[in-house]
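Page 37, continued from 36.
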């Protein structure tokens, strides 16, 4: 009996080792539309007011390959690009997005804190203030740029309206969507399975644990890309939403995740299966370097011009090495 158990375990370990490096033996490779390195978080919330048209234009000027944004639904069924369910933080006006008609939404404040860069603010130098825009406006302005949509509410109407817009603009393969909440993510998949999708938080953590016990090479991955937090940056900076819950338990969880997510072999396996790995949010050269050295395909940033400069410097370095 012991010999059988040992043999079974040895077979499992060897199979896991082989499939980790050669996943094509078991799984069909996925195919993301383009190679994405530069992703602008909320359009680049450190350089322009978050989720504004000015932010998205600035990101595209700086060569972004993906615009990350957030969506809510107004009372008159307009899909708007806005992060919070409540208006106060970003506009200074009390109330909820869902309770307002689109035409009655207030403009953004001219100065907003940068969520993932504590102590930093983004201040708009011009007037009038930026207005809240619709998802339709983004699709119209940037038809060829991949848009990454975070569905912020468990609202069937919101999911259906976003799906309808994606179909209307025929951009199923130029749009990534999903949600942190697995129930919302499941609704997205059921509503429009043709749209590219990233996993909810719980599923992402599940794949990380599966890697550490050797199961990941055997598991199917029904997602088109992964979006992992850059835990080292979160641990060092403690963004605003972490500071609000800064207990020893939170710090212990962050420390554990830093360790579990520090294995380049995990990201390399995912990429070998044709699935890009995006990390959020990196805002400094050190953080960009950490993310790419870990194995990120692309980095989400609040500072599009800074990431562009970093990528351009890397390209020049490769060119110099090649020519020497």
């Amino acid at each position: 009996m012991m010999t059988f158990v040992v043999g079974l375990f040895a077979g499992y370990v060897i199979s896991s080792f082989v499939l980790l490096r050669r996943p094509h033996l078991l799984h069909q490779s996925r195919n993301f539309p383009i190679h994405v390195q530069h992703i602008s978080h909320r359009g680049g919330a450190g350089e322009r007011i978050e989720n504004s048209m000015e932010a998205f234009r600035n990101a595209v000027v700086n060569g972004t390959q993906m615009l990350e944004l957030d969506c809510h639904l107004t009372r008159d069924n307009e899909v708007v690009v806005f992060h919070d369910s409540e208006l106060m933080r970003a506009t200074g006006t009390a109330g909820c997005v869902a309770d307002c008609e689109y035409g009655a939404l207030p403009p953004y404040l001219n100065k907003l804190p940068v969520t993932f860069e504590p102590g930093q603010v983004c201040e708009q130098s011009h007037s009038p203030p930026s207005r809240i825009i619709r998802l339709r406006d983004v699709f119209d302005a940037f038809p060829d740029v991949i848009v990454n949509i975070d569905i912020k509410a468990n609202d069937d109407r919101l999911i259906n309206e976003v799906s309808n817009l994606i179909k209307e603009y025929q951009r199923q393969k130029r749009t990534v969507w999903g949600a942190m909440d697995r129930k919302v993510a499941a609704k997205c998949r059921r509503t429009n399975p043709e749209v590219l999708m990233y996993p909810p938080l719980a599923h992402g953590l599940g794949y990380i644990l599966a890697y550490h016990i050797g199961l990941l090479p055997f598991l199917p991955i029904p997602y088109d890309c992964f979006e992992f937090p850059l835990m080292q940056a979160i641990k060092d900076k403690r963004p605003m939403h972490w500071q609000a819950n800064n207990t020893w338990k939170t710090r212990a969880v962050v420390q554990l995740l830093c360790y579990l997510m520090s294995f380049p072999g995990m990201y390399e396996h995912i990429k070998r299966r044709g699935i890009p790995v995006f990390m959020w949010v990196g805002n400094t050269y050190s953080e960009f370097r950490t993310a790419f050295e870990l194995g990120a395909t692309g980095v989400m940033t609040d500072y599009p011009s800074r990431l562009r400069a970093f990528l351009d410097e890397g390209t020049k370095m490769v060119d110099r090495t090649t020519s020497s």
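The CA atoms of residues 73 and 158 lie 6 Å apart. Flag for discussion at group meeting. DSSP finds 13 helices and eleven strands in the chain.
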